[in-house]
Amino acid sequence: MALLDLLGRRGTLRLLWELRDGQPQKFRTLQQSMGGASPTLLNSRAKELREAQLLELRPEGYALTARGLGLLDELGPLDRWAQNWARALTR
Length: 91
Prior knowledge:
Number of strands: 2
Radius of gyration: 14 Å
CATH class: Mainly Alpha
Structural class: mainly alpha
CATH topology: Arc Repressor Mutant, subunit A
Mean pLDDT: 93
Helix content: 55-70%
Low-confidence stretches: none
Strand order of the largest sheet: 1-2
CATH architecture: Orthogonal Bundle
Shape: globular
CATH superfamily: Winged helix-like DNA-binding domain superfamily/Winged helix DNA-binding domain
Number of helices: 6
Distance between the termini: 40 Å
Order of helices and strands: HHHHEEHH
Number of domains: 1
């Protein structure tokens, strides 16, 4: 599975974002923080991210792997670009 295909799926980036602080989260907590995402969607995205070695399931909950945290670091420039774009829209 190509990384961009995975990241482009509904809910994937949001799931990564919710785990950005590196602290594991239980399924229900993640579901709530994702605006009440359906269990089917969350299970599917978590499975895909685990297969891509970006997410792991620990006893204390879901957490990003070192690779997953590294991916978020690489998305930093895109986040900065998006913030500038959003500011420009409001002018």
